[in-house]
Every structure is written in C-alpha cells, then in structure tokens.
Write a structure and sequence with these properties.
The chain is of the alpha+beta class and 950 residues long. Helix 7 runs parallel beside helix 9 (231-241) and helix 24 crosses helix 25 (879-896). Strands 3, 5, 6, 8, 9 and 10 form a six-stranded antiparallel beta sheet that branches. A two-stranded antiparallel ribbon has the order 1-12. A two-stranded antiparallel sheet has the order 2-11. The chain starts with a helix and ends with a strand. It is flat, with a radius of gyration of 34 Å.
C-alpha cells in the first residue's frame, strides 16, 4: 500500500475493530451457570401420541413465535423437519431419547435465566412438560404430514437413463439419440429441426466452438473434398485431438472457478506462479482425463501425485493485509473458507451453498449446519505457495548430485570465512560480530570437523509455546546428510506433543520439510532431540528449521546448544545460540566487517553463488514453487450464529449436504482424508448433481445456452431444464462412458442438431425466439478471447506456444499496492492465445475487456453478451486492431501478391473459409483503391461474419 493509504487503511481497521468489539462485547454474556436438572418435572410414564398430546401444546404455546408466520431465532415448531433440525441458537433443540439434554425442555421449564418459554402468557404446566419429556424420550416420533411434505426437487432425484423417444424420429437421420430427444421436444411445439448447414458453415462453426480459432483454408479445402460418408465424424475426431481444444475449453473452466493471477483486494499483488493450475487444466482436457478424476485432483490432488490440481482451491481472491484485531482476522479467514465452499458448490454441484452461511438456505434443502460441515472439509487449506514435485530422470539426478556437491563446497568455504571473522581479534582492527538471529526457515551451524556417533539439539527457550523443528540435518565433509532415517540414523527426544499426526518424532529426520512434517516437544519452551548414527561420522555442519516453507513463525528455538558425542554420554558442545544476535535484530552481512577487503569480496561472491546454486538444487530436488495452497491440520469447526466467527455454536464434523449423504467422518478426521472423502462423495455415481451439472455446461458452451440456463444453480431458484429427459440421458451416458468429456462432446458435435443451419424461420421465432429448443443452430457473438485469437490467426501473427508463464496486456508499477495500466504497444510477446494472458483481478485489457471479460473476482458460469459503442470503437480504432490490420495486409501481399483481386480472395479464405461473391469483390476492390489494403483488412475484422458463430 502507498504511504498515503497506509495510515488510512490502518485507521479504518482500528475504527471497525473498536466498533465491532463494543457490539460483540455488549452482546457477550457471562458464562452460563450449570442447569439444575433436578428441577425438571418428571416424564409422563405412559406412551405419548404426537397428534393427541404434543401438537396441541405446540399450537397453543409455541407456534405464535415459532410457526408459519414467524420464526424467532430461526426455530419453528409447525413442521417436523424444521423442528428436529433446530434453530440458530441450539440446533438441535430436540434431542430424541434425551429429554433432559434437550434445550427445548430447559427453556419451557424455565431453567435458562431470562429465556423462559413462552415469554408471554401462561407457562407450561408440569403435566405438559412431562408430556414433552416423555415424547422426546420415546424417540420424538413426529409422523410425516402428507399435506406439508415437500416434493423432491428434480435435480436431487437420482439420475435414471430415460428411453430414447420415438416421436419425431422421421427427423433424425443420424441415429444419434440426441436428435431424437430434441426432435421429440420440438414436436410438442409443432416445430422441426432445420436442414443441414453446408460444409463450409459446419467446419467454421466446429472450429470456432471447439478451438476458438477459424479453420485454415487448407483445412476447409480438405474437408470439402472428403467424400467419405463419415467425413464429419473424422473431422470432429481431429478437432477433439488438437491441443487447441484444451486451450479453448480451459478458458470456460477458468471462468467457472474464478481463476486469476493476482490476489485482488487493495494490494493486488501478482501471483507469478499461478499458471501451473491453468496449464494443468489445459493438459487434463487435452488428455480427456475422466471428469471424476479431474474433480478429485482439484480437491485432493496432493494425495495422488496431481499437486497442480489443488490450484482450484486457492484460485480466488486473497487479502494479504491482515487486521491487528483478532475478530476481524477471524472474519477474513471465514471469508477465505466461504469462497472455497461457495466455488466448490457452484462449480461441481450447481448448488448455492453460500446462501447457508448465515442461516438455513431459504429455497433449497441445505441447512446452515451443512455449510459448516463442508467448511470443516476445507478448514486446513491455506492460501500460499508450495513446491510442485516431479520425478527426476537420470540426467536430472546426475545434475542434482553435481549441484549438491558444488553447494557443499561453496557453503564450506563461506563457513570458513565466517569462522575467521568470529575468531578475529580486536587487535587486528576487527569488531566482534555476532551471527544473524535465528529464523523459522533456515539456520546453519558451522564448526571444526568432529567425529561423532550422536548429536543432541537442546532447546532452552523459544519465541512461543513448545519448540518445533521440521528437519534436523547433519552434514559430513562430503556434503552428505548423515542424519536421514534412510541412512539408519535413529531419533530420540525428551518428549513429543501427543494428539497430532503431523507432529511426530520420525519427522525430525525423514527428509521432508514444512509444518506438516515436524516434531514438537511436549514441554513449553524446552525440549531436546537426539540423532544416533549407525556408525561414527565426521561432521562439520548442521542445518535446522522450524518451517522451511515459511508459513509458521512461532515455536522457533532462540536459546539452544548443540552437542556431539564420540562415546555414549560424553557430550561436547559444538554450536549454540550464544554467538547469535537476538531475534528481531540481525544483519546477515555483519561478519564482512571483520574480513580483509579481499576476503570480503570472496565472501560476497560466495553468497551470490550459494543463492544461485541453492535455487537450482531446490528447483530440481523439491520442484517449482507454485500457487497451489498448503495444508495443515484444522482447528475444530463450529456452526456460527448468523455466520459470525465470534459466536460459535455446536461442533460440526466434516460432512456434506445432509439430504445427499454423509462422509462418516469424526471431528478429528485427518485433514487430507476429509478432502479425499468429500471428493469421493461428489464423484459418486449416486450423486445426482455432478454429472447433470457438467453435461449442461458442455451443452451451454456448444449451443450458447444450457439445457438449464442457470448453469451454477440447479436449486429451486434456478431454471428448470428445457429438455429434462435429454439432460438425464446425457448425464447417464457421461457416467457410463467413464466420465469422458470428449465422448459427450463428440455425440453432440456429430448430431444433426449441431449440424443444422442457423437461418431464422417464422414458425420457430414465433414460438421460441431464443432457439432454446434448437429448431436452428443459435448464432452468437464470440467471446473476447476468441475474437482476439482469430484476429491474430488471420494476420498470421498468432504464437501457438503452450504453457508456462503468461504474457501481459498491462504494465505494472510495483509498490505496497500494485498498480496496473493498459499497454498501448504490442509485440510478438503479446501475440499468444489469450488463455495465456496473465489475468489481473479488477483490471481489464483496454481493447477486449469491453467484451464482457470476467474480472477474476467472481465465479462466472455464463458470460453476458453486451452490445456497447465502446466495443465498436475498440474494434475499429484501437492500436491493437490497427496493428493487426497492417500485419494482415502484409500477409496478403506476401501470399497473394500485389493484385487486389487475389488479395481479396485470399482474405475471404482466411477470414471466412469461402470465396467472395460478386458484390463483395466489387465493394472490396473499391475500398482498397480508395483507402488502402489495411483499411480493407480492418473492415473485415469488424464484420459480423467474422465476429459471430453461425
């Protein structure tokens, strides 16, 4: 943030924090005294009948505040499901077979101070309370009321494969079931499918829809000359096999999961390594990865070697500016988790789970408790970078060995210079220099080589709490880490904090770093850990850290000693914290002052070499650092009253939407297991939503609108499907084909429905103006990315390099707050496909941002298609379009010569895949004569035939 914004932002946080603290402080009650259950009237000893004994009590005393018209505290006693679920304050208020533990009984008996129910009028008699107690103890049996039972929503019913209809079969010459379903639905409106589009229209439509690029003139000619009866099917196969397919369809998915490459919010810092997730999506689509596997990898890819997939979890915005107020920090964390839950719900399930964050969903059967059960699944996800591991080949293994040896030599040389600096005498003109203070990521101890059979690290004080060490490494003169358990070294310790699977003694020397693989002592501020070697080792350097990933900064050892033993029990100190600066004041280069000028230069060179070599070793050994999130064991999750993180209610175990199943996990389930189980639930064939939602998205991106035109809301507030039988048939076929996206896409692309003409017909317009029923192929304008890519393809400037860091259409002014400004000049670096654009949240490209590009702040399941003057101006006058028009003109001169007739013919082939007609030849030639070839190519870029899919 800028210097002018810093105090303003800080004052805002303080003001809000003080205000909320006052509100919350006033609302907080003193701890509730223990209830005297001996004051409860006894339960009625006879069997109780709900209709005769209980319902009259509810109607007389309760339903004026907790009934159809009013539901105080979100609790109602006029419906079975709502009553047994409970309200906002207790949930559940009724605990079957345990009346003495049921808040409802406590309230009506007057045991809760200031909350006696009913609050007005006569209190319940002891006999009435006894009846309620008996009813609860006998199981709280509440017969279903047929008049109030809600029908199951269509999207929550199991997917059943419907029979292929016979109505309208005379229209379906392909034998494709899709055509049969569409024709049968059209027949209900006395409509029919249109005639087939000609081959030129078909190939152009296919390429624009599936690749976002036009076919080349050569591809058009080959298709026109292909006389085989299965020519269309072969063309579809080639299109689906092209790498261009994954690039096109990845952009759709990135909209759905709110992917962008900056944090958003005020600072909006760039994520330079977020592109790994984008590349993962492109590869997965090109490989036709089964969709159920695609889902599992995005939720728990770290468990199966598909780490890049978890970029989905942290693809959203992230506020790096944390509040000094703990309550506001809790709210920020709550917002982060809600973003993951909301996006997971809309992307995979078509459910608006976020509507249940503060209360039960108003329209769908999603309880507030369900929201927090799903939040518990993701409660261990942190917005951060982590290493993206990869398997080394033989050449890389050799290079890694060489680099480690080189790093060891460099480190030893630098350590010798540091030792010389520490040993320098004041009479030499040197100043006694302390080593830098400890830190959480990397601490090195260098000493004269000693022979040892064991090393002990004793911690006497920490920055806070019990000490934690994620790895203790001991190196010999060859740079070999002799501490690894794989070499036979055995760890022991003073004690280990119990109850945490990720904090175990074996993690101290397992070769894995980071908080999830660490040891924690069982004593606050103290503890020791010892490594016993299988044979004597000559050691000279030790490296230790609290969290090599740098996420956790607590529990760092600040006062310690390290000892070596040649014989059991005979310890000699080899390093300690005595020669280190105190935490918070450290100059890592202070030792240079004690060296001669020549040695200081050598030391500086060694520092630079070590940094470079260390980066190379880390990159090879641990993989690239990528924005994929990190994972830690989560704290206990509670349901939050009205979504307020300071008002915790009952503990919630990790789970799902209760009406659709359960994970069967306890509140202490391991973090990764939560995500694995949840992913398995989403991808279960018994889940009625997952397949329906995805095939509907496929339909939407092919035809412009889904069978359900609210693609991320299949709930009661969403639209009903225009062809429910077709939707279910596609969903069943999707699962039966091993969740193959390309299989479903091929069925659609080979159908007569996709291949029909797009021209209007009066009968269709009168009944179905938007062509939702598909009596014609619905024309639509291309999205921004496809328009830009097609321009580059036509000009011949398109760079088809795949993957890796993206390109920029903004220039950045980096500061505490990053500022972005649209570029005015463009070169070859900016001529890649737009899916590789480094997309900055809240910022738009100056030309194509006007074409309804997402900002990256929100999930965009369906882009709008506006029509504004700015769009027309950008396509006609912007620097980019003017540049591309000139490049296109140069291409025409190269490929067609200087004669306008040949240039015009070539331009129409490149732009539209066809020859110009007589009028177009004449008008084009006149334009070239009057204004030049670049004006002609610019005019073509602005034609509807270029900008639309027909």
């Amino acid at each position: 943030m800028t210097p002018t914004k810093t105090p303003r932002r800080w004052l805002t946080w303080v003001a809000v924090g003080v205000g909320l603290a006052l509100i919350w402080g006033a609302a907080e009650a003193a701890p509730a005294p223990a209830l005297d259950l001996t004051q409860l009237p006894p339960a009625t000893p006879r069997p109780v009948d709900f209709a005769k004994d209980i319902r009259p009590i509810f109607e007389q005393a309760c339903q004026s505040c907790h009934g159809t018209q009013k539901q105080k505290s979100g609790f109602r006693l006029d419906e079975r499901e709502a009553a047994l679920k409970g309200g906002e304050n207790y949930a559940p208020d009724i605990q079957p077979r345990h009346s003495a533990d049921s808040p409802l009984i406590h309230l009506v008996a007057g045991l809760v101070p200031d909350r006696k129910m009913p609050p007005k009028g006569d209190a319940l008699t002891a006999d009435q309370i006894g009846l309620l107690r008996a009813w609860i103890d006998q199981g709280a049996n509440w017969p279903a009321d047929k008049t109030t039972t809600k029908p199951i929503h269509w999207a929550l019913k199991p997917v059943e494969r419907p029979p292929v209809p016979t109505t309208g079969r005379d229209q379906t010459t392909t034998g494709n079931p899709i055509d049969a379903f569409v024709a049968a639905r059209l027949a209900e409106q006395q409509l029919t499918l249109a005639a087939a589009a000609d081959r030129r229209a078909f190939i152009r439509r296919l390429y624009l829809v599936m690749h976002g690029l036009p076919p080349t003139p050569e591809e058009v000619a080959n298709f026109l000359n292909d006389a085989r009866p299965d020519a269309r099917e072969k063309l579809v196969d080639r299109v689906l096999a092209s790498p261009r397919y994954g690039e096109r369809w990845a952009r759709h998915w990135l909209d759905v999961v709110r992917f962008a490459e900056s944090n958003g919010f005020e600072t909006n810092h760039e994520r330079k390594n977020a592109h790994y997730y984008r590349d993962y999506v492109i590869r997965s689509l090109n490989d036709d990865k089964p969709y159920d596997q695609f889902i599992r990898e995005q939720i728990a890819g770290d468990a199966g070697g598909a780490d890049a997939g978890t970029g989905f979890l942290v693809a959203g915005a992230y506020d790096v500016v944390k509040s000094p107020d703990p309550n506001l920090t809790l709210m920020q964390r709550q917002d982060e988790l809600a973003d993951i839950v909301n996006t997971t719900g809309t992307a995979f399930l078509g459910l608006t789970l976020g509507c249940a964050r503060c209360h039960d969903h108003k329209f769908d059967p999603i309880a507030q408790k369900d929201f927090y059960a799903i939040q518990a699944v993701f409660a261990g996800v942190n917005f951060a970078e982590r290493r993206l591991p990869h398997k080394l080949n033989a050449a890389e293994e050799t290079e890694l060995t060489r680099l480690k040896a080189e790093l060891n030599s460099q480190s030893n040389s630098l350590a010798a210079l540091k030792q010389a600096a520490r040993m320098a005498k004041p009479g030499d003109g040197a100043v006694k220099i302390l080593r830098p203070a400890v830190n959480e990521r990397f601490n090195e101890e260098s000493f004269a080589a000693v022979e040892a059979t064991a090393v002990r690290f004793t911690i006497l004080a920490t920055t806070s709490a019990e000490p934690c060490v994620d790895e203790l490494e001991v190196f010999d003169a060859n740079g070999t880490n002799v501490a690894l358990a794989a070499t036979g070294t055995v760890p022991t310790a003073s004690g280990t904090l119990p109850g945490y699977a990720i904090h175990k003694l074996e993690h101290i020397n397992d070769g894995l770093t980071g908080n999830n693989w660490s040891w924690i002592s069982d004593t606050a501020g103290r503890g020791w850990v010892q490594l016993d070697f299988p044979s004597p080792k000559r050691i000279q350097r030790i490296v230790w850290s609290r969290d090599r990933e740098g996420v956790f900064k607590d529990r760092v050892a600040t006062d310690y000693r390290i000892e070596a033993a040649r014989e059991p029990g005979k310890w000699t100190e080899i390093a300690s914290s005595n020669d280190r600066e105190t935490v918070g004041a450290s100059d890592p280069n202070a030792f240079l002052k004690s060296l001669t000028e020549a040695d200081a230069k050598v030391a500086r060179d060694l520092q630079a070499q070590i940094r470079q070599t260390h980066e190379q070793v880390t990159k090879l050994a641990e993989g690239e650092s990528a924005w994929l999130g990190t994972f830690s064991e989560p704290k206990t999750t509670h349901r939050l009253y009205r979504g307020d993180p300071t008002q915790e209610r009952e503990v919630v175990a990790p789970g799902t939407v209760a009406v659709l199943g359960d994970l069967g996990l306890g509140v202490d389930a391991p973090e990764q297991q939560r995500r694995l189980q949840f992913a398995a639930w989403i991808t279960s064939p018994q889940n009625p939503l997952t397949a329906r939602v995805m095939v509907n998205r496929i339909w939407q991106y092919i035809f412009g609108t889904g069978i359900v035109d609210t693609p991320s809301d299949f709930g009661a507030n969403g639209s009903r499907p225009t062809n429910p039988a077709l939707l279910d048939w596609l969903a069943a076929e999707f699962m039966r084909s091993d969740w193959s996206l390309k299989h479903v896409q091929k069925l659609i692309l080979c159908s007569r429905t996709f291949g029909q003409a797009s021209g209007p017909r009066p009968a269709g317009l009168a009944v179905d103006a938007d062509a939702r029923l598909l009596w014609r192929f619905p024309p639509r304008r291309l999205e921004a990315e496809a328009i830009r890519d097609c321009m580059l393809a036509a000009s011949g400037a398109l760079d088809l390099r795949m993957g890796g860091p993206g390109f920029y259409l903004q220039r950045k002014e980096a500061d505490n707050v990053d500022r972005y400004f649209p570029k005015d000049d463009f070169g070859p670096n900016e001529f890649r496909r737009m899916v590789y654009l480094t997309r900055i949240r809240q910022e738009q490209d100056s030309v194509f941002g006007a074409f309804d590009c997402p900002s990256g702040n929100q999930v965009i399941p369906k882009r709008s298609r506006s029509n504004t003057p700015l769009q027309a101006l950008n396509l006609f006058n912007s620097n980019f379009v003017l540049q591309q028009a000139e490049l296109f003109a140069e291409r025409l001169r190269r490929e067609a010569g200087e004669k306008p007739a040949a240039q015009i013919a070539r331009a129409f082939q490149l732009m539209y895949g066809r020859e110009p007609d007589r009028f177009e030849r004449k008008a084009s030639a006149a334009l070239i004569r009057e204004l030049g070839l670049a004006a002609f190519t610019r005019a073509l870029y602005n034609t509807s035939e270029f900008l639309f899919v027909f």
